[in-house]
Structure prediction request, 468 residues.
Amino acid sequence: MYKFPEGFLWGGAVAANQCEGAYREDGKGLSIQDVMPKGIRGKRTESPTEDNMKLVGIDFYHRYKEDIKLFAEMGFKVFRTSIAWSRIFPNGDEKEPNEKGLAFYDDLFDECHKYGMEPLVTISHYETPLYLAEHYNGWVNREMIGFYERYVRTIFTRYKNKVKYWLTFNEINSVLHAPFMSGGINTPKENLSEQDLYQAVHHELVASALATKIGHEINPEAKIGCMILSMPTYPLTPSPDDMIEVMKEEHMNYFFGDVHVRGRYPGYMKRYFKEHNIKIHFEPEDEEILKNTVDFVSFSYYMSCCATADKEKQKKGNGNLLGGVKNPTLKESAWGWQIDPKGLRYVLNMFYDRYQKPLFIVENGLGAVDTLIVDENGNKTVEDDYRIQYLNDHLVQVGEALLDGVEIMGYTTWGCIDLVSASTAELKKRYGFIYVDRNDDGSGTLERYRKKSFYWYKDVISSNGKTL
Ligand code: BGP
Prediction:
């Protein structure tokens, strides 16, 4: 039996653009997601098109009360969502915020508190205002820091008494792989120079540190974290050359955590920049700003991958955003994401050894095709034993990491209610404990149904992990 700490923050996670819908309501501007009907692999469109599932999402904008009630029924202590930047600043560069957008999140956070649930808010989750992408080229442009600063000041001030836990950027390292989705960078990836890409990274890192500073000034009690896409890398063979590849791959991800926790650029990146002829432009204040380090480190975990020095085998796998070489010892999901519960224990230990900061697992889960059935009592449900198995196996490893002495604040499963996938923009890739009746052709009643995993998670939470 595993012992989870008292006050462990059990819950679930979503992002505004993948569930809210209402893409043009109450003054919202367009976000980059409104022109990404096919996710990261497809081309962006000029303007929103009807086949874009995110325009309606799961209609969370209108149904959040019903959904939060269901989360409360499972016993959630925390609910992670994001604020859609373009609801607050429709174009992104306005001087004054949109009051209706602010009011929506006031109501949403009040609703969470009604059930004793803490909101955990991602400030920017793959939803840069489209205008900022098209007119400024997103984070390549230093002016973004000022727009982001105005946005964070507005929301930190407004929700000072409602939100304690904040994340500055979702999976900040993913900008290296999906520059439009993650960084609002309009230059097509194939034309984007490494110089511009890493300058954009620098701007985001400065903006993140600035947000941490401002957040603490406005509310000294606030807990502000970074959020990293974690994907532990194993050597494909025991060869030292493969191990060096592992080190290089891991550096590319640790870079982001290192700056957030240590407040400065690591030596290995300086070497990388030198060897790739990249010159990061620092304004005189940047070094000081970067010293505003985070209170905790959060991350998503879905899978691990392998690295090899063998050029032939280096071809990228069809994995998560980061790709990677497949591990021949692991099974995979229907979308080719390799399933590796022990990798979660490993990554928790690695982060904790390196940073000695509290950790928060803010995404983990299985995307699967679910079949809605009618049970013996006449209720619609999904018998998702595969999801229960996946989550149980991962939580057992969280229990192991706790025994290893790792300090863990909480765990929020990804897509606690079915929502639109970030990578493929489909709804049939479902993660939820709650089934949403909506299909990729736009049909469906949007009704919600409790899956078998709903009751499983409820027991896990009420026993504080003892049922695992
Ligand atoms: C992460 C993103 C989420 C989420 C999740 C699952 O990379 O932070 O937004 O969607 O992955 O990915 P997908 O939706 O592609 O299955």
